[in-house]
Amino acid sequence: MTEHAPALDERTEAAARIAESRAANDRLTDSLTDLWDELVAASAGSNADDEHDPEGATIAFERERLTDSLTRARTDRIALDHALVRLAEGTYWTCNSCGGPIPPARLAARPTTATCIGCAGRR
Description:
Layout: H1 8-43, H2 59-89, H3 104-109, H4 117-121
Helix pairs in contact: 1-2
């Protein structure tokens, strides 16, 4: 297993990138949750047959779209939390698949990645 011994400033930068991504993810999740609440409130008590409305998207379609977006945001948050754990354990720069190094540039572009480019390409 090849180890990358990151400098303190690399650790600090990685932690800052992850924290920034988590904050952005929290804002997105809050915004999507607010949209969900508004959609539910707007459709409460409505008997409208929006499934056959030629004017636009159905409420069911909007709910599905918001559900998918919320699921993706929550999954991203879990990945960010796992990245923080790997950072704390000192394995952030090590590929989970082959044990080789993950280049700092890859981690800068994708802070949640846990695989090197080679292993990611073999998926």
